[in-house]
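To the team - dinuclear copper ion complex, inputs and output below.
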Amino acid sequence: MNSVSPLFPEQASTIAPQVDALYFFLIGVTVVFTGLIATAMCVFAYKYRRRTESDVGEPIHSSLVLEIVWTVIPFLIAMAIFGWSASIYFQIVHPPAETLEIYAVGKRWMWKFQHIDGQREINELHLPASRAVKLTMSSEDVIHDVFVPAFRVKADAIPGRYTSIWFTPTTPGEYHLFCAEYCGTRHSGMIGKVVVMKPHDYQQWLQGGDTEGSLADRGRRLFQELACVSCHSTEGSGRGPTLQGVFGSQVSLSNGTTVTADDNYIRESILRPQVKLVAGYQPQMPTFQGLVDEEGLMALLEYVKSMQKTATPQP
Ligand code: CUA
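Output:
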């Protein structure tokens, strides 16, 4: 057990010790100042108590030095807390360049996970140890929230857009997974477990199970079923722009602005194609709202990303 105290979950990610250090510092500062103030109150209440009926208090002369000291010290402590927590926050919100990407969909009342290689899980998430993992999340109904106390990570899964968190599990084992946003009658039952495995065991685990093909393969099949391919050809001769190499690129829009083609842009372009129309194209694409579910969207997104990976340089 990697736990700092029986009151705390074990530390099973690289960020956990840092979050705990900050947390204990905050508790320490709170305890010290609570103690100081309570002691001063008792001491002064006794020292300056009313001794006789005719006692009159003495006038107080202010002290500039005292005022400065008790302003500057708390200011420095507050700034230290700000600087420290901001640096941890930046680490938590900026995933490294190379991560294992996993998709998560919250749904009343379960978690659905999809691995890039094709494995799907419900309320269980298998991960390799010592590798940075990025969860890209969405919700099919209301706001849910992925919370893994042992990793000290927590983030909302919001309907209608993608959010993400990343972490690096350090220790093989099983950890609790909670929904941390009240989402209806069975919110308390929306729990699961994260199984962190040795990298080799994880590779073996990936081989097992159903063989539906990779997530990008499912996306490619959906791309054909929905007839996206009839307009979005690979060589760019169709009525819509080619999607080859689109992901991560800068896209010029018909209103003269430019956007980065990220997860949320691809998602919006499938569901509400007219909102950000690519420059030079007619607003002909129908909406796919209601025709593709969250898992389908993630498969399509992964397919678009895979076209990026196999992109060949233009002649
Ligand atoms: Cu989902 Cu609470």
